[in-house]
From TrEMBL, chain A:
InterPro entries: Cytochrome_c-type_ET (IPR051174), Multihaem_cyt_sf (IPR036280), NapC/NirT_cyt_c_N (IPR005126), NapC/NirT_cytc_sf (IPR038266), NrfH (IPR017571). It comes from Algibacter lectus. Belongs to the NapC/NirT/NrfH family. Gene3D superfamilies: Di-heme elbow motif domain. It comes from the Bacteria. NCBIfam families: cytochr_NrfH (TIGR03153). GO terms for biological process: anaerobic respiration; electron transport chain. This is Cytochrome c nitrite reductase small subunit NrfH. GO terms for cellular component: plasma membrane. Residues 13-166 form the NapC/NirT cytochrome c N-terminal domain. The chain crosses the membrane at residues 15-34. Keywords: Cell membrane, Electron transport, Heme, Iron, Membrane, Metal-binding, Transmembrane, Transmembrane helix, Transport.
């Protein structure tokens, strides 16, 4: 691709589609969505953005307790990272899809990644672990890895990464994941605050 | 909005009041957490050096009796057990003696601080310094619920919360604001309310005489920083009965040592290992059976480590064994030093001649205790623990070489005969404890006073009632 | 299959003969590996306690001079550098002295064993015991190529191979068969040919007098197991000049200590960190620039750890600092013990009185050296290293308390005055070394003998020729 093409997206590229989706979100769902789903935060990489929807709480909590909490946020896995356009295109498309389902209260009890999402995630696993899964020298270190990894999805073996083995929106009863709208910061209860001031 | 809707998608059974001390009340709303919390009462699991089983440490390692001569710990010291046992254990411990009523007994009220959710309730009702005032026995009828929900949770939001002032004050002293703590940090800080080194400050301006609970963190949390702090304020917990050294007692600096380990460095919190996520009947929740993670390797470790459970256990034991090996040797030297110092006094040594030696003993035993009392530390942070033990070796070597020269000067140029401390009984006799008497007064206390406490508490709690949601909302 | 196809898709330029010592010849077929191998000549990288830069250890830490009084290491000891420097460094070291010709000089031929791929060639030509026989200077014209391909590779298959008999014999002695090693184990075992503790056995039945290279692994590889081995055969490397203790020298037990660390436990090999994969111009190959991984964190560590390079470096330094802190303190005590023992002899102590004390010094210094000389160990296995240092503290405390009593008995009941060893020069003077003379004989040797060796070698190698593939295949 030459420089011009890089700067000015090709007509056939996904740029147009992205624009269409942005417009769709803004005009179609408008203020309601903005308020309801904290739209602005949805554009960020903060996992809290995803918990704007309660149906995402189970996956948030399982991620929060997984080996990947410190390394990979939702978007590191669920959004393409091959180029910046693709990233936002995918996010916008996804966002619209999720939002529609959510607004219609059509969310299924147990969700599944759509095929497109699966491909994205698989590619992201590989993106981070490319050395471990492609270097011949790890053949001895991790037996059969080279052979097996090519034919299956990573998480068919690594089931615990990152959402555990139990799925479904009713798997969590007391949903107390942090809420992005919750601005109250104090961890000291007010009675103690008061006591300490008067001491 | 719908987010909040979801938050209460379960039907709360009761409205939990502020500082509700009764865990069972919380349990009505959060049965999975409560059921798992109840399991901390279990005392059947033992590991190489931990677990929930009752283990008499003075019996397992009789050196301890000599090291703590003149101090409560030489009377009785057991392995920590699950949180549900906290009230029972402090009541049964010979350290708290056999008070006959208000104003009696060896221990201050401050001892209750880390044992119950009745503590924040009382502090709220009476005030903090007032809570710390008086004898341990004075508040026996007020504190009956073992460590539980209100110690860590806000009753309205269920958010993690800091209910103990000492930790907040320690952060202040370091110039930090605990309200800035992240969610991840809170998953360790709730534990740091109790699993930390502490002392009783009786000189707090305006509260003179009150044994005010303090964490000595002003200069930092390393063994050196705390030592420096104590030296500067010339604090000592007690004077050793044999060596007459001004001693420091290190109590479970678990959080402080954890922070120096690789897990903390990688953002792993106490709750990640001691309260892992659990699935039961299609439900996921935080396992409130806080215990040795070795009883639960699959949830506690294998989330992050793919090794065999047996291998992971071996990793833990390996680090613990290597640490124990040197810790026990250091202990042996400390026992010798105390006995040698006693010999020197017996032979007429002067204060002046003993001064440096006693400081060496103080500092070396402080380092040993910092490594020994921080129970998980030989796994949480094996390299720092080894460094601390090494520094103890250094100091006690200096001390014992000085002692050898002093003893020679006093006419005793040979190895000092060591007492027979092959059993706990012999060791306790050697340091002059009348265990019979201690056990007797404890038995009487349990027969006479404790039932009264429980009755008074029952009476008091019966007035709290349960705030049924339907009635209140 | 495709894998083998790939392996031989390059066109070999030359046929490499068995035991070809000239690295450049191999380089014709494997230019990427050869080019990276050449970089081990670089000496510009320094870390907290490692790296390839020239560092005079006796200057950085003058205690060492006293600890090794009476032994070659007190003359000269530097940080190890890259493999390309092996021949140069052993030639320049004052330890190998200034031989005037065959049969002269302080060191045996065995010293060459770990310095060059000419060694397997010579062993093949002459026999193993014959190789070890005679003086270091006797083989100077035969050994000129620095550590290289033939030390680790089979010239036909390029498979990793063990070219040194000592390792094979050590496996035999332990009842193990090195041929059973897995591919992953071989990626460490090629290093274990050299990065291991060794001694020269002059009593081998049938080869009496020949300093036969041996690894003391029969009872195991721990510091205790090797000590037990040496004690049982009453071996000592030298008698200390001050204390007259029968000393042991630990030389780089790198492989032994590595095995006790968590990386080895998880199957990570030396090559994983010191020879990571590298991509250059779309080609992937094993980086043969063997060096401190801290010069290459992205390939060496971040393959498995995704932390910041700076954080990973800090992890390494942190462990090294904590280890160094106690290692240096132990060193200080050892210096004192040697000087105090000398004082005791001076005051007329008897062999009988000194016997136990000298054994304590031997054992304590052995432990210190085991921890100190295994250069990477404070990172490779920080917990075991700390354990070993702790055990050194224990033994030297016993020794020094005995010394204090003995000195008091001999009429000297006060601290023994320590010599001024604030610089390397002062320390070397204190132990009675004539450095001027040593430097002079080295200079003459380099001026007169070394050029002759190189000339003879050139002449010899010129006859090997290059076996061009087209001519031979
Ligand atoms: Ca304390
Ligand atoms: Ca040796």
């Amino acid at each position: 691709m030459d420089i011009q093409n890089k700067l000015l997206p090709n007509k056939k590229s996904r740029w147009r589609t992205i624009a269409v989706f942005f417009i769709a979100i803004i005009t179609g769902l408008g203020l309601f969505m903005t308020k309801e789903a904290e739209l602005v935060s949805y554009m960020s990489d903060d996992p809290l953005a995803c918990v704007n929807c309660h149906v995402m709480t189970p996956v948030y909590n399982s991620w929060m307790h997984s080996s990947h909490r410190e390394w990979a946020s939702c978007n590191d896995c669920h959004v393409p990272h091959n180029n910046i356009f693709n990233k936002y295109y995918f996010k916008a498309k996804d966002g619209l899809f999720h939002a529609s389902v959510f607004t219609l209260r059509a969310e299924p009890e147990v969700m599944f990644m759509r095929e497109a999402s699966q491909e994205v995630v698989q590619n992201n696993c590989i993106r981070c672990h490319v050395q471990q899964v492609t270097q011949v020298k790890y053949d001895g270190y991790i037996e059969d890895h080279a052979k097996n990894r090519t034919e299956r999805q990573c998480w068919s073996c690594h089931q615990e990464v990152p959402h555990g083995t139990v799925h479904g929106i009713s798997t969590i009863k007391s949903n107390i994941a942090p809420i992005p709208t919750d601005k109250e910061e104090a961890v000291i209860p007010s009675w103690l605050e008061k006591e300490m001031e008067t001491k | 909005n719908r987010k909040n809707e979801a938050k209460y998608q379960y039907v709360p059974k009761v409205n939990i009041g502020d500082n509700e001390p009764r865990n069972a009340e919380w349990g009505k709303n959060y049965p999975a957490e409560y059921q798992s919390f109840l399991q901390t009462a279990d005392t059947s699991f033992a590991t190489y050096q931990g677990g929930s089983a009752m283990r008499d440490m003075l019996d397992e390692d009789t050196n301890l009796v000599v090291l703590w001569a003149g101090y409560g710990f030489s009377k009785d010291y057991s392995q920590g057990r699950g949180h549900m046992n906290a009230i029972k254990d402090i009541t049964n411990s010979l350290r708290t003696g056999g008070p006959k009523g208000e104003g009696d007994g060896p221990m201050p009220a401050t001892c209750w601080t880390c044992k119950s959710p009745d503590v924040p309730r009382l502090m709220n009702e009476k005030g903090i310094a007032e809570f710390y005032s008086g004898k341990w026995a004075d508040k026996g009828d007020e504190i009956v619920n073992p460590i539980g929900c209100a110690d860590c949770h806000d009753s309205k939001t269920m958010k993690l919360t800091i209910s103990r002032p000492a930790l907040v004050e320690a952060f202040d002293a370091m110039g930090k604001d605990i309200n800035q703590a992240t969610h991840q940090e809170m998953r360790s800080l709730v534990c740091a309310q109790c699993h930390v080194e502490y002392y009783f400050d009786k000189k707090l301006p305006g509260k003179e005489g009150v044994p005010y609970l303090k964490l000595p963190w002003e200069n930092g949390m390393s063994v050196e920083a705390m030592e420096e702090y104590y030296d500067a304020i010339e604090f000592s917990d007690w004077t050793h009965k044999l060596s007459r050294a001004p001693m420091l007692k290190a109590q479970h600096p678990g959080y402080e040592t954890y922070l120096t380990g690789v897990h903390a460095d990688r953002g792993v919190s106490c709750a990640d290992c001691h309260m892992p996520y659990k699935s039961e009947g299609g439900q996921k929740f935080t396992d409130h059976h806080i215990q040795s993670p070795l009883n639960n390797v699959s949830n506690a470790c294998q989330v992050c480590h793919r090794e065999d459970a047996d291998k992971l256990k071996m990793n833990v034991y390996d680090r613990q064994r290597k640490t124990a090996e040197n810790r026990l040797k250091l202990e042996g030297f400390l026992v010798k030093a105390h006995v040698e110092a006693k010999k020197a006094w017996d032979l007429g040594a002067t204060e002046e001649q003993m001064k440096d030696i006693l400081m060496d003993i103080r500092h070396a035993q402080w380092r040993w205790d910092y490594a020994a009392a921080s129970h998980g530390a030989s796994f949480h942070s094996p390299v720092e623990t080894a460094r601390v033990i090494g520094s103890g070796f250094t100091i006690i070597q200096d001390g014992r070489v000085k002692l050898a020269r002093l003893l020679a000067e006093l006419g005793h140029n040979e190895a000092v005969t060591m007492p027979d401390i092959s059993t706990k009984e012999k060791a306790q006799e050697y340091i002059g404890l009348d265990m019979e008497a201690l056990r007797k007064e404890k038995a009487e206390f349990k027969k006479n006073l404790v039932p009264k406490w429980l009755e008074a508490a029952k009476e008091r709690e019966s007035k709290y009632g349960a705030k049924d949601v339907s009635l209140n909302n």
